[in-house]
Specification:
Blueprint: H1 3-32, H2 36-62, H3 83-109, H4 113-119
Length: 120
C-alpha cells in the first residue's frame, strides 16, 4: 500500500473516533436541556462514527497494514443555543467528507484501486 494512502487511512480512524466524541458531546448538550429525541439521534450518530472507524481499522488489517492509533482529543465546544450544535455537526461532516475525498484522490494518484473501491 502506498505510504501516503496508508497514513491517511490510519489517521482517519482517529478522525472518526473524534467525530463520535463530538456527536456524543452534542447528545449530552441536548440531554441536559431535555431534548431527548435530539440526544438519541446524536447518540446514534456517535455509534455510526465508531462503526466507520472500525471499517478503516479492519481494512488496514485485511491489507496487512499495522494500525497505529492516535490520540483522541475531547471536543472543545460550548453551545449557547440549540442551533449551534447542529451547525457544528454540519461543519464537521463537511470536514470529514473533505478528508475522505483527499484519501480518494491520493488512492487514485497511487493507482490504489482497491482503496478507492473501499472508500466508495
Amino acid at each position: 500500500m502506498d505510504k501516503k494512502v496508508y497514513t491517511m487511512l490510519n489517521d482517519q480512524i482517529t478522525k472518526e473516533y473524534y467525530s463520535a466524541y463530538l456527536y456524543l458531546q452534542i447528545a449530552a448538550y441536548f440531554d441536559e436541556h431535555g431534548l431527548d429525541g435530539y440526544a438519541a439521534w446524536y447518540e446514534k450518530q456517535a455509534q455510526e462514527e465508531e462503526e466507520h472507524a472500525m471499517k478503516f481499522y479492519r481494512y488496514l488489517h485485511e491489507n496487512g497494514q499495522t494500525v497505529k492509533l492516535g490520540q483522541i482529543d475531547a471536543p472543545d465546544v460550548t453551545f449557547n443555543d440549540f442551533l449551534e450544535p447542529v451547525k457544528a455537526a454540519l461543519g464537521h461532516e463537511q470536514y470529514i467528507t473533505g478528508c475522505i475525498n483527499d484519501i480518494m484522490t491520493a488512492a487514485r494518484e497511487a493507482h490504489d484501486y482497491r482503496t478507492a473501491e473501499f472508500l466508495q
